[in-house]
Amino acid sequence: MKYQLKLKHxxxxxxxxxxxxxxxxxxxGSSHSFPVGTNELVxxxxxxxxxxxxxxxxxxxxxxxxxxxxxxxEIDALGDAITAIAGEETGLPSARLEGERGRTCGQLRMxxxxxxxxxxxxxxxxxxxxxxxxxxxxxxxxxxxxVGPIAVxxxxxxxxxxxxxxxxxASALAAGCPVVVKAHQAHPGTSDLVAQxxxxxxxxxxxxxxxxxxxxxxxxxxxxxxxxxxxxSAVGFTGSLAGGRALFDLCAxxxxxxxxxxxxxxxxxxFILPGAAAERGExxxxxxxxxxxxxxxxxxxxxxxxxxxxxxxxxxxxxxxKVALAGAAPQTMLTxxxxxxxxxxxxxxSHTSGVRSILTSKCDGRQA
Length: 368
Prior knowledge:
The protein is an alpha/beta fold.
């Protein structure tokens, strides 16, 4: 499947290059060069978003609902191309990517429905009570309002549903807030195509160009500049605990702190009580192995630690998990960084006092 990449940043309707570049690191196929983001580009994107906010925040709910539906249509129109480039960049199978594209477009259409219903506004009206004693009550009105430009960070493990046009972007646009996306370096080509889809939707619906911008990374300074920009009103992030904590701290340290909406990584420990281990320990062991290896362990729900009291039931659970894990098929990790982190973590754990290895797998590059 052929696809045409812009290989540039999208800043308020303009595709912009740069003097420095970084190369993508696909699991298969050809590598591509993308421009490194800069503080100047971030500043321009955010200022354009603030300008767009003046008019976009005043658009009708129906107009924004239509905008989101058109974005979904444009993404679907590029479906085969998006699956092709995302498969090359991430190593994820086509079926998984097609399902995730369906989820992405479903989220956009869901927020369209939410807009049309209007319940999210939480409108309240308390009439004035001038005769109330000991003090009269004035008329009170309350409703939810858009807050301003939103920074969204693409996730590595969901190149579509939690990235350029993912849930954070969809909810912000639905609320009337322009979005500046920091594309993830793990899948810059996928982000490029999805940004093209959003650009087409902007043209079709007559929305202001500054309602959406995408800046490539290549440097951690790009994300820092985006979060610290005084015109950014909130941040959406899906990723590691360390990365999320750093961004949260930046949000909290601003002269006027802003909300940080983060879904961060975790080892998701499971505690197996004696009764459960005795009744269905082997079943739990097999289920744990299946969940542990789903997506090469790169889902946010991955149960990385299981705690069980020693004994015969625990041994049966462990043995069942060992057999299931030994039969797991090889998979491709999403990024070189994840593969390195896995190797370092495996080494660190194996050298911890009291640790006994039951089953160890090898990681060759990104192949696990």
